[in-house]
Each structure stands twice: as structure tokens, then as C-alpha cells.
């Protein structure tokens, strides 16, 4: 069938030939004839998809016969048979093949009712049974639309749909696959769906950007994906080979909220509805990774910057032993220690202590019998050492022998009611009383509280006195010589 464009071209050349002769004098011709463009041709398309379930090489055929026009009157027209051969694959894996009619942009299919005939035959030697399977499907073909026909070998009947074209060049971005359960250091793949609701097959570029919650992006998180030959009336997931996949390397980024910004760029000149040329995804969260490489994610790691795969936390405070600052909380015996006696030290940062790392009374310790994160045992090398106990942790720690100055290292619980029992840990608790002093000025102090009878020099037990509810600072007082008033600060005790 001759196209309208061809007729316009011939008419233009005819006009030029006439104006080149004597007729130009008579009719006053010019060489710039203003001939209006021809109306666009009728655009009606059929796409036939056939699914083959048999194994072995097969030949699939499709053809069509027009039976009625759009008014329902008998009509003529045909689609010549097209054949395609499929190579064998493993048994049980179906194969699909598509036929697009018309095959050429210079030919057109008239609208109306069509009978589409499909067949599947095995490719065999002459004289052997090719096991033919045939099916005829009726479909209504509309102007400026794509009629789809889906047939499956062995099934009776067909399915299909009609896609009405919005114009000649109408493409857009559909859904976006948002990465899920992403952590810093992961490399998720990004994909999206493109749609072609126009009459022409199209190729175009989609620019993909990852942006943070403030809308910022960087060149390392920007890609251009080339969409090749997206068929009229179809949609598909991109990127497709040979285009490379989009892989987002999240190494080094900050955890937080991100979203995807996709845009067809440059836009198609003939796209009259560019509103779907740009799509932004819903925000998604990138969670912290594993900074120290110990197999535990940072948001679940009790020591995220120091490897500790076992997550040891000997005091149960939520901070891993590997992150605890070395500290001597108490040791016993702490005064008048006999030579050869075992000294037990309680604190933090003792996991790798070895002989030579401990000094007591100026003498190096040569026998460490046990070393753990929160405690260690060693044999005292001299009789009745004086001065300090030093341990070469990083940084080093030390404690005063015989605890000349009482010291409170911790207490538990941190809140309670009058009458509840509170435990103080430290040293030098002999001969002291406890006084609760209110944080708010003007309120009265509690009366001095005598420690429980089972208290020791490094562990003191007392019961909360009858005071008003509020926050109090724990003081140790000693009225006899030497007189002192020791404050546990800055942590406070809350009376409920």
C-alpha cells in the first residue's frame, strides 16, 4: 500500500514540473507550493505471543484473515504467514515467541475483526510426524491501538488485551524497585519499569540518581541506562542486556533515608504527555553496616568500632568489654596482704593482662593465675605491700593500697523506695555512715544511716532512709579522725 508521504512527494514534484514550463506564465505558479501535510495513517497493530511447551526444535507460524469491518460488515484483508524456528531446550521449560504485525512501517492493518491462526510443528525429517497443533483466535483490531493475542500450546482458546495509543511517541517510567533491607557496604541492584503507549517502537535514555533526604546526590550515585527498542504498547523491566546492570555501592555512605529519582533525559520530542517521564520512589532506609568487621552490625554491636564477635559484656551494662575504659573498681584483700596470697581485682580491661603488667607496692607480679575482661587474679610477690596497685592496661590504671581515702566506684540500684537495700562498691568503707543530700537546695539532708552489719571495707550495704521523693547525692561521712565527707558524683540516687 502506498503511503500518504509518498503521494505528497509526487504531488510536489509534479507542481514543480508544471511551473517549469509555459503553464507558469498562464497560472502564475511559484516554486514554493504550500501543500498541507497528509493526515497520519491509520495505525492498527497486532502482537501475537505463542508459548510452546514441547521440547526439541519447533516451527511456530502466525497469520491473519480480516472477516469484518468496524461496522460488522463482511470485509477482506489478510496478514501473510510469518514463521519462526525455536531451538531445543530442556524438557519442562516453556518457550515463547512473538510476532508483530505489520512488520513494516510502510504497511498498515485495517481495523475490524480478525481471525489470527497460530500453529506449532516439530522440526523432523521428511515423512515423520511433526505433531501439528493449531489454534484460531478472533480479535478486534482498533484504530490507533495494539491488539495482543496470547496462545499456549495445548490450551483451547486465547487471551488478549487492547492498548490504545496515546500518540506516536509516548513513553514513560512506571514502577521503581526500591532496595530493601540495605546496610552500609551492601551493593543492591536498582531496576525500574518503562512503558510505551505510543504507536512507534522507541529507544531512549533513563537517568537514575540516588538522593539523600535533603535531595543531594553525587556522581558516584548517578547512572544512565539505555532503553533499546521498547516495542509499541509494551512495558518491561530495565536495565536489560546488553545494557549493564545498575549496582549501587553503599560503602562509605552515611546511614539514613534515601530515595531514587529517575528521569527520561533527553525527552522524546514527540512525547505529548511528559508527566510520567520523571518518577521519584518512596523513601527507604539504609541501616548501619559492620564498621569493625566482627560480623555484628553497628546498630546491634555493643562495641561498634572494636572487633568483638562474641559481644562480651561482663557487667551487663550494654557496653562491650572491648570498649570499656580500663578501671579498677575494687580488689581484695586490699590491705596487709601476705606474700603468696591471691589478690582478686574487679574492674574493666583486664582480658589480655599477663605477668609483668601488674605492679604492687613497687614490685612486679610474676604470677597471674586468671585474666578476664572484668576480673583477674594474681599472686602477691611481697609481704604487706604499701603504696599503689598498678596495672599496665591502655591507659594504665592504679588503686591505692589500704585505701587511705574512701572511694565509691559504683552503686546499685540507682533508684528505690525508703527501706530498699542499696549496695555501694569501692574501698575504705570502715567506720563510715551514709547521708543522702538533696540535689535541690533548701531541702533537708537525711539523718546519717548506719551500714548493714554484713558490709565490708569494699562493699557497703545500706537501707534508703525515710526522706521525701526526689533526687539525692550519696555522701559518706566519718565523724571520727580523720573527718571526711565523700560525695558520689555526678550520678544521683532517686527516691521514689
Looking at this protein, list some descriptive labels.
single chain; 496 residues; mainly beta; Immunoglobulin-like; 6-stranded mixed β-sheet; 2 helices; 42% strand; elongated
Characterise this structure.
The protein has 496 residues and is mostly beta strands. The protein is 4% helix and 42% strand. The protein folds into 5 domains: 1-39, no CATH class; 44-164, Immunoglobulin-like (Sandwich), CATH 2.60.40; 171-287, Immunoglobulin-like, CATH 2.60.40.10; 325-402, Sandwich (Immunoglobulin-like), CATH 2.60.40.10; 407-495, Immunoglobulins (Immunoglobulin-like). It is elongated, with a radius of gyration of 44 Å. The N and C termini lie far apart (96 Å).
Overall mean pLDDT stands at: 84
Distance between the termini: 96 Å
Q: Please tell me what the overall shape is.
A: elongated
Rg to the nearest angstrom? Answer: 44 Å
Unreliable runs:
1-33, 38-42
CATH T-level fold name of the largest domain: Immunoglobulin-like
Number of separate domains: 5
Distinct helical segment count: 2
Strand composition percent: 35-45%
Portion of residues within helices? under 10%
Number of strands: 34
Specify the CATH class of the largest domain. Answer: Mainly Beta
Short synopsis of the structure:
With 496 residues, this protein is mainly beta. Helices cover 4% and strands 42% of the residues. Strands 10, 12, 13, 16, 17 and 18 form a 6-stranded mixed β-sheet that branches. Strands 28, 30, 32, 33 and 34 form a 5-stranded mixed β-sheet that branches.
Amino acid at each position: 500500500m502506498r503511503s500518504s508521504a509518498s503521494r505528497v512527494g509526487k504531488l510536489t514534484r509534479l507542481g514543480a514540473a508544471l511551473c517549469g514550463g509555459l503553464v507558469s506564465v498562464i497560472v502564475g505558479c511559484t516554486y514554493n507550493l504550500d501543500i498541507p501535510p497528509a493526515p497520519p495513517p491509520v495505525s492498527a497493530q497486532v502482537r501475537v505471543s505463542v508459548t510452546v511447551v514441547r521440547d526439541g526444535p519447533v516451527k511456530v507460524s502466525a497469520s491473519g484473515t480480516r472477516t469484518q469491518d468496524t461496522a460488522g460488515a463482511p470485509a477482506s484483508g489478510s496478514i501473510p504467514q510469518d514463521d519462526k524456528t525455536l531451538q531445543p531446550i530442556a524438557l519442562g521449560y516453556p518457550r515463547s515467541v512473538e510476532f508483530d504485525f505489520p512488520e513494516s512501517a510502510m504497511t498498515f492493518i485495517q481495523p475490524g475483526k480478525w481471525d489470527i491462526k497460530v500453529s506449532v510443528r516439530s522440526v523432523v525429517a521428511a515423512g515423520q510426524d511433526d505433531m501439528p497443533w493449531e489454534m484460531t483466535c478472533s480479535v478486534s483490531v482498533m484504530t490507533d491501538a495494539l491488539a495482543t493475542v496470547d496462545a499456549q500450546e495445548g490450551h483451547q482458546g486465547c487471551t488478549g488485551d487492547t492498548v490504545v495509543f496515546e500518540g506516536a511517541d509516548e513513553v514513560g517510567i512506571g514502577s521503581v524497585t526500591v532496595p530493601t533491607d540495605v546496610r552500609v557496604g551492601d551493593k543492591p541492584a536498582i531496576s525500574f519499569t518503562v512503558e510505551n503507549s505510543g504507536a512507534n517502537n522507541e529507544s531512549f535514555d533513563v537517568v537514575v540518581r540516588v538522593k539523600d533526604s535533603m535531595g543531594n546526590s553525587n556522581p558516584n550515585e548517578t547512572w544512565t541506562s539505555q532503553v533499546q527498542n521498547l516495542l509499541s504498547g509494551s512495558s518491561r523491566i530495565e536495565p536489560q542486556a546488553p545494557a549493564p546492570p545498575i549496582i549501587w555501592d553503599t560503602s562509605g555512605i552515611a546511614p539514613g533515608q534515601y530515595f531514587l529519582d529517575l528521569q527520561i533525559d533527553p525527552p522524546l520530542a514527540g512525547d505529548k504527555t511528559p508527566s510520567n517521564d520523571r518518577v521519584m520512589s518512596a523513601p527507604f532506609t539504609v541501616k548501619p553496616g559492620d564498621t569493625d568487621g566482627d560480623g555484628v552490625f553497628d546498630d546491634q554491636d555493643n562495641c561498634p568500632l572494636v572487633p568483638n564477635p562474641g559481644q562480651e559484656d561482663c557487667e551487663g551494662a550494654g557496653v562491650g568489654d572491648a570498649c570499656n575504659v580500663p578501671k579498677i573498681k575494687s580488689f581484695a584483700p586490699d590491705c596487709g596482704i601476705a606474700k603468696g596470697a591471691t589478690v582478686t581485682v574487679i574492674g574493666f580491661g583486664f582480658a589480655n593482662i599477663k605477668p609483668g603488667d601488674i605492679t604492687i607496692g613497687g614490685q612486679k607480679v610474676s604470677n597471674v593465675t586468671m585474666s578476664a575482661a572484668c576480673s583477674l587474679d594474681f599472686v602477691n610477690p611481697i609481704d604487706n605491700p604499701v603504696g599503689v596497685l598498678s596495672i599496665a592496661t591502655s591507659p594504665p590504671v592504679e588503686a591505692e593500697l589500704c585505701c587511705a581515702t574512701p572511694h565509691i566506684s559504683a552503686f546499685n540500684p540507682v533508684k528505690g523506695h525508703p527501706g530498699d537495700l542499696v549496695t555501694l562498691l569501692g574501698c575504705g568503707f570502715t567506720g563510715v555512715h551514709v547521708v543522702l543530700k538533696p540535689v535541690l537546695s533548701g531541702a533537708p539532708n537525711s539523718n546519717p544511716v548506719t551500714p548493714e552489719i554484713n558490709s565490708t571495707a569494699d562493699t557497703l550495704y545500706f537501707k534508703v532512709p525515710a526522706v521525701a521523693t526526689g533526687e539525692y547525692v550519696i555522701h559518706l561521712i566519718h565523724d571520727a579522725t580523720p573527718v571526711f565527707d565523700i560525695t558520689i558524683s555526678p550520678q544521683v540516687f532517686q527516691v521514689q
